[in-house]
Amino acid sequence: MPIFHECQRCTACCRWPGQVRLSDAEITRLAAFKGMAEREFIERYTKLRSDRRGLTLLEKPNGECVFLDGNNCSVQSVKPQQCRDFPNLWNFHGFEKTCHAIPRVVGQAEQVRLIAQATQRSSDEVARLLESKL
Ligand code: SF4
Ligand code: SF4
């Protein structure tokens, strides 16, 4: 049954422990958004991932993402793909206990369209990713 989880912007996913993986292109976009050189951005806002395979965003001392500003993502327009993809393209067992996204049963084409819109991916890409999860 195709389901679309409609985000309620509760920001719980910006507050729980975990790493936000960053691709090189995302670092370039985020640094430009902040008006910083990439090296400066990397030094100020990132650290090595625990698997040492790349960089992750820093967390504040209280555990929330360094870019969470009250109840808003301060880099919303350029936030990493990992943030956009949750919870429709990845999630974890029991995520519904904390995430307030509303699950809606939708048609298959509607599911692809809505997820593409939410994740800013192309419909073809979303369709492929959903298929690979089956
Ligand atoms: S980058 Fe934005 S959306 Fe992603 S975890 Fe940080 S505050 Fe949340
Ligand atoms: S994805 Fe879930 S946890 Fe994250 S902001 Fe939306 S409703 Fe909240």
**Domain tally:** 1
Count of beta strands: 7
- What fraction, in percent, of the residue positions are helical? 25-40%
By secondary-structure content and strand pairing, the structural class works out as alpha+beta
What is the molecular shape?
globular
- What kind of sheet is the major sheet? 3 strands, antiparallel
Bound molecules: iron/sulfur cluster
Q: N-to-C SSE series?
A: EEHHEEEEHEHH
What is the spatial order of strands in the main beta sheet?
2-4-3
Number of helices: 5
Short description:
The protein has five helices and seven strands. With 134 residues, it is an alpha+beta fold. Residues 7-13, 86-87, 99-101 line the site of one iron/sulfur cluster.
